[in-house]
Design goal:
Elements: E1 9-13, E2 16-23, E3 28-34, H1 37-60, H2 71-89, H3 94-130
Antiparallel strand pairs: 1-2, 2-3
Helix pairs in contact: 1-2, 1-3, 2-3
Length: about 130
């Protein structure tokens, strides 16, 4: 009589109980994965930071007018900055921190560009009405 095969799934690696290997029902396959809650935390932080900085970047690229001002743009920049701070404080993976910092630079550059364009339009309107 043969022993029943285990159900497909992840099982402790006999060579290293801190890692897990996958049994597909016929054979062991896949690289061993660390059974570590820190991996899940790092993944969650990476996903959260990426979502936060992308949302902030989109917010920072909203259209503005002289009537509404550039407040929404700077709110977006603040959201990107918050995401970048979270990436550094929670020690996200290096690529996440680099990505967040680059998106922050892009959002800041966009915010300053929009402010510059709005100032030029204000000066243009001032000269029109000063005549």
């Amino acid at each position: 009589m043969t022993a029943p095969q285990p159900a497909p799934g992840w099982y402790p690696d006999p060579s290293d109980p801190k890692k897990r290997i996958y049994w597909d029902g016929n054979a062991w396959s896949g690289p061993a994965q660390a059974d570590n809650p820190d991996n899940r935390k790092k993944t969650a932080v990476a996903i959260g930071v990426c979502v936060l900085v992308v949302v902030g970047l989109v917010m920072s690229m909203q259209s503005v007018s002289l009537m509404t001002g550039s407040g929404p743009v700077w709110t977006g920049v603040a959201v990107v900055a918050a995401g970048t701070a979270v990436a550094f404080f929670l020690r996200a993976a290096t690529w996440v921190r680099v990505l967040a910092a680059l998106v922050l630079v892009l959002a800041l550059a966009n915010g300053f560009y929009i402010e510059d364009q709005m100032n030029k339009k204000r000066e243009e309107l001032t000269h029109i009405f000063d005549r």
